[in-house]
Amino acid sequence: MSKKSRRSPKSVDTTATRAKAVAPRKRQRQRTKKQIALSLLERPKGASITEMQGALGWQAHSVRGFLAGTVRKMPGVTLVSDKIENGPRRYPPLGYDCEDRKLVVNQAEAETVRQIFRRYAAFGSVLALKEALDDQNIVGKVRVSQAGRRSGGKPMARGALHRMLQNRIYRGEIVHKDKSYPGQHAAIVGQDLWDQVQALLAENRVERRTGGGAKNPSLLVRLLHDDKGAPMTPRHAVKNGKRYRYYVTRALTTRRREAVPDGRRIPAGDIEQIVVSRIRAFLSSAAEIHAAVEPDAKSAIEQKSLIARAAALSDQWERQSPAQTRGLLCTFVTRIDLRPDKVDIHLLPKRLGRILTGDASVLSQVSTVAEDAPTLTLSAPAHLRRAGMEMTMLIDGNHARKGKPNPSLIKLIIKAQKLKETLIQGGQPLADVAKSAGMSSSYFTRLVKLSFLAPDITKAILEGHQPTDLTAGRLINHTRLPLDWKEQRAVFGFS
């Protein structure tokens, strides 16, 4: 066999083998999932999410991601979803049915919708609205899928009711990219009822944001910062049924005192009184108001009018509710800084000017520096002092709380006078009287000594005019109380 004849079979075998190897590859070449998906979408009836899931083996979120991320970005391709013309997808909201791809009013459901709007206008609360609807067994829309499955018909959640009350479809409009346009469907809710409901919703949003709905709102929440610039948050403690409010450095609410040695804890009433007193003094000062409003109020007549309105606002401040005060502070005060020797109040003169001109719309806005710069800083002198054994930070200064008696101090003075009378009238040894009162002799002696305080010191304590750092702990723990009244005044800071 020649070489040629010997090589010929090998050459033929090689070719056949290659042909066999190539053939399966051609048979295995199949359409990609993208091609399958596009072919389904190109059908006259289109394709549902469920159909695409079955054909592609994808989960529903993957199908939606493919439609939004791939198909919509393909040039020359328009993706049309099964929706009502210029309206919502597939299922209409309560009050409407879908006929010929358009919204048609369902009269029975429409009356339910109007009833929901009217009740919210009466209650002013989504929670109260939900409770009333649940009591009457008013439920959401019943929906039937293409496969005949029923869904819905359940009590409406608060979130669903809140969205429903803001749905402009009920005004016969369509919303696209935060803009509303006239729709082709009829409105269900009248303009007056709609405006009333929207005003209530806006008012409630401001109240939640400012904390005005609280029984005892903390006036300076989200405004007050300590001397390190850290935000301070309201806290309270209850002792013997009495509620004591404080502002504490926020880090102290989650970490131990050792981890935040510079954290502050101050009585809420003291710092709030300082801030309010300084703002009222500012409003009453014609010179300060003139300097604040002059850039925006050019004419002398307008400036004089604003100065008069500011003084009137200061006079009527005490007649405001805490919620109104909180809302007012949130409108034109941007920040309050607690310094070692003063309190800085940063406010927005432009916002204040709008309030004084009677612009009610500004009261629904929370102050931000970026929108209404520049700011004006008011300072009130104050000093942080540690109050004896109570380890509480007190405020001292010209704007500190005045004329408010300290119940603990008054209780000590009254108890001291009673024990002194018992000791004099009973004629018993001191140790026996102390034992019958349930006290140690040492504590009894220190307490009785307080009955010999100077009359002017006792009067100041009863009227609440004592120094702010004079606490019950400091008074009772002063073991060597001088009998000389002049020395007593010097020791306790009355001189």
Structure description:
The chain is α+β, with helices and mostly antiparallel strands and 495 residues long. The chain folds into five domains: 1-30; 31-81; 96-210, Hect, E3 ligase catalytic domain fold (Alpha-Beta Complex), CATH 3.90.1750.20; 224-387, no CATH class; 405-491, no CATH class. It is built from 20 helices and 15 strands. The strands form six sheets. It has a four-stranded mixed β-sheet. It has a three-stranded antiparallel β-sheet with strand order 8-9-10. Helix 5 packs across helix 8 and helix 15 (407-426) crosses helix 17 (441-449).
Give a nutshell description of this structure.
The chain has 495 residues and is of the alpha+beta class.
Could you say which overall geometry the principal axes of the C-alpha atoms support? elongated
Distance between the termini: 136 Å
What's the arrangement of strands in the largest beta sheet?
7-11-12-13
Oligomer: single chain
**Count of alpha/pi helices:** 20
Q: What does the main sheet amount to?
A: 4 strands, mixed
Which range best describes the helical content: under 10%, 10-25%, 25-40%, 40-55%, 55-70% or over 70%? 40-55%
**Overall average pLDDT:** 78
Q: How many structural domains does the protein architecture include?
A: 5
Unreliable residue stretches: 1-20, 83-90, 388-394, 396-402
Structural class: alpha+beta
